[in-house]
Amino acid sequence: MIDIAIATCSYHPDLGPLDRGVIAELAELGIRATPLIWTDAKASLDPFAAVVVQSTWDSHLDPQAFVTWARRVHAQTALFNPLHLLEWNLNKRYLLELEQQGIPITPTLWVSAGSSVDLRNEVTARGWTRFVIKPVVSAGATETHVFDVAGIETAQATFDRLVARLDLMIQPYLLAFETEGERSYIFFDGVFSHAVRRPPTLKSAPRGFDQSHEMPPIEAELQLSRQVLAKIGETPVYARVDLATNNDGVVRLQEVELVEPCLFTSLAPGAQQRYARAIARRLPNAPK
Ligand SMILES: Nc1ncnc2c1ncn2[C@@H]1O[C@H](COP(=O)(O)OP(=O)(O)O)[C@@H](O)[C@H]1O
Ligand SMILES: [Mg+2]
Questions:
Q1: Eight-state DSSP code of residue 216
Q2: 231-256 tens-digit pLDDT
Q3: CA-closest candidate to residue 188, choices 67, 121, 270
Q4: Is any atom of ligand 1 closer than 6 Å to the C-beta of 255?
Q5: From residue 10, how far is each of 19, 58, 202 by CA, in Å?
Q6: In whole angstroms, how large is the CA radius of gyration of the chain?
Q7: Is 200 a pocket residue for ligand 1 (Cβ < 6 Å)?
Q8: 117-126: string of b/e by CB count within 10 Å (b at 16+)?
Q9: Would you say 52 and 281 are in contact if contact means Cβ atoms under 8 Å apart?
Q10: pLDDT tens digit string along 93-103?
Q11: CA atoms of 174 and 151, how far apart (whole Å)
Q12: Does domain 109-172 match CATH 2.40.10.10?
C-alpha cells in the first residue's frame, strides 16, 4: 500500500460529495488515500507519499495561510497540482496572461486594491448595462456582486468597500449564465475526460436548470479548452476549464481551475477511475 492524502476543507471531512469516489478507485490501485483537512495544524504529513489538493474550498478566505500550507507540504512531500501551478492559479490575473497569449476571455476591467474608480464612467464607456464585481482571489462566488447601471450608487459603495482591501475584477454580466449555464471541460493528465454543464454558482442568479449534469463535449469548446491547457506549460494532474457564452454570442474562457475545483467525477462513467489513474501515474512505485 502507498499512502497519500487528499486535501479538503473542515466542512467536507470526507471530500466533496461528487469526487470522494476517487478514494475507492485509488484503493483498487493499491493506494490508500486519506482525507486531510488543510487547516488542521496538528495533522502530520509524515505518512504520505503525496498530497493531492482537491476540496480545499475555503482556501480563498485566507489565501496567504493556504500558500504557506502548500509550501510546507511541497517542502515535505509531493504536492499536486504542483506548487507553482497552485500559486499561479489562485489569483485570476492569470486570465490576463492567457489573454495576452491569444486566449479569448470574458472582457474584464482589472482594478488594484486602493485604486479609485468612477464606476459609472467605466461601465458606460464599455456599454455594460449590467455588470459583475468580484475579487481576483475568490471561489464559490464569494463577494461576487451583480449591479445595474441604474443602481450605480449602491454598486460604487460596494466597490469602494471591497477595493479598499482587495484587487478586483469587473465584467459585463453574461446573460447566458442564466439559461445555458457554464460549461466545464475536465482533463486528467492533459487528456479530456468529461464535460459538465453547470448552473450559476451565484445563489441569487435566475437559472434555467438547477443541477450540474454531464453533457457531450461541443467540438469548438473542447478545442478552446485544449488551447487553454496548452498554454499552462506543464500538464496538471487535473484541470477544469470553465467556458461561458458572452453577450455577443462568442464562447470565451471564464476560468481555468487547478486548485480545488469540483471535478464532478461521480456524474461521468469512468471519470473516477481516470482521475485515480492520473494520480497513480505521478507516484513513484505505484502500480499504474
Ligand atoms: N461575468 C459574469 N456574468 C454573469 N455571472 C457571473 C459572471 N462572473 C461570475 N458570475 C457568477 O458568479 C459565479 C462565480 O464566478 P466565477 O467567475 O466562476 O468565480 P468563482 O467560481 O471562482 O467564484 C458564477 O458561477 C456566476 O454565477
Ligand atoms: Mg467559477
A1: P
A2: 998 999 999 999 999 999 999 999 99
A3: 270
A4: yes
A5: 16, 9, 22
A6: 19
A7: yes
A8: bebeeebeee
A9: no
A10: 999 999 999 99
A11: 18
A12: no
Cα(212)–Cα(273) distance, integer angstroms: 20
Amino acid at 230: A
Q: Copy the grid coordinates of residue 144.
A: 461576487
Please report where in the chains the cell 439559461 appears, as a residue: 179
Matching residue, cell 462566488: 141
pLDDT of residue 138: 87
Question: Which amino acid is it at 246?
Answer: N
Nearest-CA residue for atom 17 of ligand 1? 254
Ligand nearest to the CA of 138: 1
At position 251, the amino acid (one-letter code) is: V
What is the average per-residue pLDDT within 32-54? 96
- Is residue 50 within 8 Å of 282, Cβ to Cβ? yes
CATH class of 2-90+276-282: alpha beta
Query: Closest ligand to 57 CA?
Result: 1
Distance between Cα 109 and ligand 2 center (Å): 17
Q: Is 245 in the pocket of ligand 1 (CB under 6 A)?
A: no
Q: State if residue 205 touches ligand 1 by the CB under 6 angstroms criterion.
A: yes
Domain 94-104+176-263: CATH architecture, name and number where available: 2-Layer Sandwich (3.30)
Domain boundaries, the chain: 2-90+276-282, 94-104+176-263, 109-172
